[in-house]
Specification:
It is built from 3 helices and no strands. By secondary structure, the chain is an all-alpha fold.
């Protein structure tokens, strides 16, 4: 249950951060992603699918870290060509 609350807090923070951060090209895709993820986390918690939901979130977090690293290098490639 603690993992669920941490994930829910993280995605809620990232959703709020979308509106305060610099607006990027993938704003609407990330907005849809964060809203749907919050709905899925809350729905699976309320439905009692905590073991399966935890496994799905674990796999999602592993893939999300790779995606975030790729986005960082993509953002760095414009001002710093060595990051390509």
């Amino acid at each position: 249950y603690l993992y669920y609350m941490i994930e829910l807090g993280t995605f809620t923070h990232e959703l709020i951060n979308l509106f305060t951060d610099h607006r990027r090209k993938d704003f609407y895709a990330m907005l849809t992603h964060h809203v749907s993820t919050i709905i899925l986390i809350a729905g699976s918690y309320l439905a009692g699918f905590v073991p399966i939901g935890s496994l799905v979130m674990l796999v999602h977090d592993a893939a999300d870290s790779i995606l975030e690293a790729a986005k960082v290098f993509n953002y760095l490639s414009k001002p710093r060509p060595w990051a390509q």
